[in-house]
Design goal:
- By secondary structure, the chain is of the alpha+beta class.
- It has one domain.
- About 30% of the residues lie in helices and about 15% in strands.
- The protein has a two-stranded parallel sheet.
- The protein is elongated and about 45 Å long.
């Protein structure tokens, strides 16, 4: 049996994650992952500490595209 390493749901420091997208992508690549799905909590008003700030959304998209 072959193990396929993949994660479809990881968070970055743009919301409530503890690691940058670049660091996660690099580690996943080194571990042999075949895919990594970056996600972020959408902007909302009831718990803003755990979501991406509206002012950071474009930077987030650019960073994810960069590490792709």
């Amino acid at each position: 049996m072959v193990n396929i390493l993949s994660s479809a749901h990881v968070h970055t420091t743009f919301c409530d994650g503890k690691t940058t997208a670049g660091d996660m992508a690099r580690a996943a690549y080194e571990m042999g992952f075949v895919s990594l799905g970056f996600t972020s909590h959408a902007s909302q008003t009831f718990d803003p500490a755990h979501c991406i700030a509206p002012s950071s959304e474009e930077d987030y998209k650019k960073e994810i595209r960069r590490v792709q």
